[in-house]
Write a structure and sequence with these properties.
Elements lengths: L11 H16 L3 H6 L11 H5 L5 H11 L5 H12 L2 H13 L3 H10 L3 H4 L1 H7 L2 H10 L15 H7 L3 H17 L7 E4 L2 E7 H8 L3 H9 L9 H7 L3 H9 L17 H6 L8 H13 L17 H8 L2 H9 L14 H7 L3 H9 L8 H10 L3 H7 L2 H6 L3 H4 L2 H9 L14 H7 L3 H9 L15 H11 L7 H10 L13 H13 L7
Antiparallel strand pairs: 1-2
Helix pairs in contact: 1-4, 4-5, 6-7, 6-9, 9-10, 9-11, 11-12, 11-13, 12-14, 13-14, 13-15, 14-16, 15-16, 19-20, 19-21, 20-22, 21-22, 23-24, 27-29, 28-29, 28-30, 29-31, 30-31, 31-32
Length: about 525
């Protein structure tokens, strides 16, 4: 296949028309049109007869046009066309946004097309770390050093702190930060997370945990950034970034997050143990927990004293396994501490199906305290069908409906046999199928679908079906155990609604969607 070059000023509408024309010719079984579809890897080995028997869609034709122009997907081609045709001001804004929100490849392409944008625009110069350009802008208007502006309503230092050019221009970003600080920038400046002023994200967090830029974090700390800002130590521990934790500690950060345990009423250790084990960043959390404990984190610190009054051991019992329990006990965790409702860590481990954690706690002398109702839930959560049915009481099921959303794959069939509702929804209006799709658990998805779970059910927060949760997680939450292509295929086969165009998903999931569209009747639309 000969690669076609895009013109200097490509027209996306014209490319769309080419795709529609190609599709029309293919549906009319024109051999030359059908042959072009062999540009798609999954169709490369298809015979003429096989190509003629496929149900080709506009998405397929667009993918062919993209590959004929040297792009792996229609979305990549569309993005390139947009980059080539953006007005200069829009290109500057997109460059700045791409530089701070992990789309550095897009920012690099925009800079290659318009190398003058960094020298021309103040905020582009900030995120790139161009000291001469920043200095020239400040010479003309010194108030720019602290004035909010640019494509995001941030102070200049926040653009520098968020920049993902750190790996390529650390020295420039550090120099720009120093100039801004010398001219009055506040090292503790913040912006509201998702627009909520009660949840400020500081510049130190941006440098330490978002951009992962230790040299800049050190500059901010030396300039007076608070090391215990309620965010940086928490997320550095979550990232398992031991070097960053060491840096924060050198400047006074406490392993327990400071005297007030941060604005959330918890500690870094409690926070990271609130994540479920087995997700993509499992090993990171384990490293972070070990560092915190080695540096004085208190495994018996009571968090949320006016609510649950839990300790980190309670959180670990609910979410983790025997190695985490052993780590906490080795650092002095009290296995008999009760939270506000009187439950011990062992009870919580059993109620959450954490059998290895429960075994570890018993080995250290923890005492069983389960009521008949507790024993029923514990049997359900560990997948003990016979035991759960023997203990079953309709009132127990009704009182613990939400437990179904938290159970593991082994427990699903047991809980459904005991009368739990497959359509149970959580605080976001999500079903268990949403969570199974999000974690890439094909066995759980299959069981849920077999028991009548709706592949069309929409959550209330994002108004999307489980398939869209699968799409998102395939890019952002991958773990070694996840089978997102398998989950996507199962949901599509079950009649999941599907948006027109190419989903925002991983390549292996996109291939499943493309193959489904070619071989199955069109599903309902979102």
């Amino acid at each position: 296949m000969t690669i076609q070059q895009l013109p200097e000023r490509p027209n996306l509408e014209q490319l769309k028309k080419q795709a529609k024309s190609l599709l029309a010719s293919a549906r009319a079984r024109h051999p030359s049109a059908l042959a072009r579809f062999r540009a798609l890897p999954s169709l490369a080995a298809k015979s003429d007869a096989e190509l003629g028997g496929l149900t080709l869609a506009l998405h397929d034709a667009q993918s062919v046009i993209a590959r004929e122009h040297g792009f792996p997907s229609w979305s990549a081609l569309r993005e390139r066309v947009e980059e080539l045709t953006l007005q200069f001001a829009d290109a500057v804004a997109e460059f700045a946004r791409g530089s701070v929100d992990r789309r550095l490849a897009r920012a690099e392409r925009l800079l290659e097309l318009r190398p003058q944008l960094v020298a021309t625009d103040f905020h582009a110069a900030l995120v790139f770390g161009d000291l001469p350009a920043v200095t020239a802008h400040l010479a003309g208007n010194p108030t720019l050093a602290t004035r909010k502006g640019g494509p995001l309503p941030w102070e200049p230092l926040l653009y520098v702190a968020h920049s993902h050019w750190a790996g390529k221009n650390s020295a420039g970003l550090v120099a720009v930060a120093r100039v801004l600080l010398e001219r009055g920038a506040d090292p503790n400046t913040t912006y509201p997370w998702q627009g909520d002023p009660k949840q400020p994200l500081p510049a130190l967090w941006a440098a330490a945990c978002h951009a992962r830029h230790p040299a800049l974090a050190e500059v901010l700390l030396a300039a007076g950034a608070r090391p215990d800002d309620g965010e940086s130590a928490y997320h550095a521990a979550e990232n398992g970034d031991l070097a960053m934790l060491d840096l924060l500690a050198t400047h006074g950060a406490q392993a327990d997050g400071g005297a007030d345990a941060g604005p959330w009423g918890n500690t870094p250790l409690y926070f990271i143990l609130g994540h479920y084990a087995g997700l993509a960043h499992d090993a990171d959390v384990r490293r972070g927990a070990a560092w915190l404990l080695a540096h004085g984190a208190n495994p018996n610190r009571v968090c949320y004293p006016r609510k649950s009054a839990e300790t980190p051991l309670h959180a670990a019992a609910r979410h983790w396994d025997d190695p985490m329990i052993e780590l906490l006990v080795a650092h002095g965790a009290d296995i008999n501490t009760r939270r506000a409702d009187g439950r011990t860590a062992l009870t919580l481990a059993e109620l959450n199906g954490r059998t290895s954690a429960a075994a570890a706690l018993r080995a250290h002398g923890a005492t069983e305290e389960l009521s008949p109702e507790d024993r029923f839930i514990a049997a359900c959560m560990r997948g003990d069908r016979a035991g759960a049915l023997r203990l079953r009481d309709p009132a127990f099921v009704a009182a613990h409906a939400q437990a179904f959303l938290e159970c593991g794959t082994a427990a699903i069939e047991t809980m459904l046999a005991c009368g739990f509702d497959v359509a149970t929804t959580g605080g976001m209006g999500e079903t268990k199928l949403h969570w199974a799709a999000f974690t890439g658990s094909l066995p759980a998805v299959r069981v849920l679908l077999a028991h009548g779970a709706s592949a069309s059910a929409r959550d209330k927060s994002y108004e999307t079906p489980p398939l869209n949760w699968c799409f998102y997680a395939s890019l952002n939450q991958r773990s070694p155990q996840a089978d997102f292509p398998g989950v996507a295929r199962a949901l599509l086969e079950a009649g999941s609604p599907l948006e027109d165009g190419e989903p925002n998903a991983s390549d292996d999931v996109l291939e499943v969607v493309a193959e489904f569209r070619r071989t199955k009747p069109p599903p309902s639309r979102v």
